[in-house]
Amino acid sequence: MPIPLSVMSNSLCVIGDFAWDVLIRTNNNLLKGGDSFGEVMLTPGGSAANLAVWARRCGLETHFIGKIGRDRFGQLAREDLESETVIHHLVETEAHKTGSVAVFVDQTGERSMVSGHGADFYLIPSELPRAVITSANHLHLTAWSFFTDPPRSASRIAAQIARQSNLTISFDPASFQMVQEMGVDQFLSWTKDLGSTFFSRIMMKVVCSRVSMNLIRLFDRWRKFMMGH
Q1: What is the DSSP letter of 94?
Q2: What would the pLDDT profile of 19-30 be if each residue is shown by its tens digit?
Q3: 6 domain-assigned
Q4: In whole angstroms, what separates CA 100 from the centre of its chain?
Q5: CA distance 123 to 115
Q6: Considering the domain boundaries, does residue 157 fall inside one?
Q7: Is residue 40 part of a domain?
Q8: Is residue 104 within 8 Å of residue 111, measured between CB atoms?
Q9: What is the Cα–Cα distance from 204 to 224, expressed in whole angstroms?
Q10: DSSP class of residue 84?
Q11: What's the total number of domains in the chain?
């Protein structure tokens, strides 16, 4: 049972993506142009929103800052976070639809994703509720907010606000493929302003088990880079 908010001494602020996952799980190999039975499910997702929900289920007061479309899926996003008792600060827009991701899981359990450019990729710095960030004890960011702008600018400014308010910060490196496509050096340059930030240990354990030395080398380079700034 979650701990009542009134007795909590710490709070977490998470900034990033809320997206609806269309999960497709197959029972056998997909043939090009063929058909197959499997499972198709719609589930709430987004790496940032997922972490916010997990933290809240563990009993931590959690605030989530993100952007959704002014549509039915945006309304469902609000309802989902409220059902999880995550305190949300959602910006609505009519210019973009609520985020969605296609998640393919094959019969071996290997998963691949295709992310659409939904409203979650359009959070701008002026939409950040600064008071929410400064009132927290810890800020969590995800690399999905760094692969494109404007969420990159918003996340970097959020980190600056957090540092000025003496918050601790954690960072989820997210997709190894997206980091590779951006370029490791470019990725490191965009994350240098995070200060004394550390990668999410849980995510590092999961990701490194999949891509082994590539992410370990990236983490080592990032750590050395940060120590020099």
Answers
A1: S
A2: 999 999 988 888
A3: no
A4: 13
A5: 16
A6: yes
A7: no
A8: yes
A9: 17
A10: T
A11: 1
Q: Is residue 6's pLDDT more than 80? A: no
The total number of residues written for the chain in this structure: 229
pLDDT tens-digit readout, 178-199: 888 888 888 888 887 676 455 5
Q: DSSP states of 126-163 as a string? A: GG--HHHHHTSSEEEEEGGGTSSTTHHHHHHHHHHHHH
Among candidates 64, 124, 120, which has minimal Cα distance to 97? 120
Residue 132 · residue 63 · CB < 8 Å: yes
Partners of 42 in beta bridges? 22
Q: Which tens digit of pLDDT belongs to each residue from 65-122?
A: 999 999 999 999 999 999 999 999 999 999 999 999 999 988 888 888 999 999 999 9
What pLDDT sits at residue 121? 95
Q: Write out the residue range of the structural domain in which residue 134 sits.
A: 11-18+46-98+117-196
For the four alpha carbons of 96, 98, 99 and 102, in that order, the dihedral sign comes to negative
The two structure tokens encoding residue 87: 């305190």
